[in-house]
Amino acid sequence: MEEILHMNGGVGETSYATNSLLQRTVISMVKPILEESILELYGTLLPECLNVADLGCSTGPNTLLVISEILESIEAASQKSNLKLPLFQVFLNDLPGNDFNTVFRSLPGFCKKLEEERGSKLEPCFIAGVPGSFYGRLFHNKSLHFVHSSYALMWLSEPPKALVIKPEALNKGNICIAKTSTPAVFKAYYEQFNRDFSMFLKSRGEEVVPGGRMMLTTMGNLRSDDPLTIWEFVGLKLNDMVLEGLIEEKSLDSFNLSYYAPTAEEVKKVIEDEGSFTLERLETFMVDWDTYISKADCSLDTEERAAILATDMRAVGEPILSSQFGESIMDDLFMRFKRDVFGYMEAHECKFINLVISLTRKT
Ligand SMILES: C[S@@+](CC[C@H](N)C(=O)[O-])C[C@H]1O[C@@H](n2cnc3c(N)ncnc32)[C@H](O)[C@@H]1O
Fold first, then answer.
1. In this structure, which topology does domain 21-361 adopt according to CATH?
2. Best CA proximity match to 52, nearest among 61, 41, 36
3. Whose CA is nearest to atom 1 of ligand 1?
4. CB-ligand 1 contact for 150 (6 Å cutoff)
């Protein structure tokens, strides 16, 4: 899974860089919580060099947006507390398949813009890439002051093993938890999430200094037995293609996305059980599947919004779906997505549910 998962690279038409407005909107929506978290960090720690990590940074404008929002928040916090700005070191982490080249190529322009905007106020800012899975150690002991991650933690380290080792596929016809999934499927996904998120917290617990902060935004759910995920709709379109003989049934039955959107209660329980961090804030907020598109351009009609939603989903899902079903069906799959998504939205409550989690490393 960790070898296959990455967003569409480059800066072309189907790239993540060009099609990540949803994630960008969510980053902007949680900015006040980021500012609050950094201000509180300043109340306890005053490092000469502030070490920050963005986990699951991907590639494109969002990667740079996160860096500048963190920088701005640090500037604001320094001003409020009347303190000198620290040196700033940021580690950009993602899986090795991520298009780090595009990120690195954009850094000189980004640093130049920062210099122009902030002039002499800016202390040196060092930026480095760290390839590897956040479900394990990435940094040395007590080396980070602030960890950020947005829209990455819903990706599990692997699909639940219990779903694949049975003689008969357990989650037949689905690619993730869906309305027709059995309780055994819910349980297997929840247990995988529990293991992964505990390992994530344990690893960060080693790496974050006592009093250091972490802010995580992820896709979530309202109830564990009531999935509201856009991937279920992608699964329905794959099912249609099975019925038309375009995909083999066993290929669909044996495929499970490494994706789990937890409830706030599930997140809270893992944090408490693992014990390295104190939960400061945990909030749930929702946006309709297409709100972020109509907000950006209210003149778009339904068909145009459906086309954008389909391209955005493709930028995220194409590498992993094509590794199972082949690149040749991707145009057809996402054309079907575009054609049918608004009908589905009329019949179902289609919302992206987001969780924002603010934590402090226990002393
Ligand atoms: C939807 S993108 C979000 C990217 C960016 N944070 C944003 O908000 O636009 C999710 C990213 O998380 C990364 N990711 C998923 N699992 C990961 C893991 N175990 N370790 C590191 N990165 C991971 C993916 O490769 C992908 O680039």
1. Rossmann fold (3.40.50)
2. 41
3. 151
4. yes
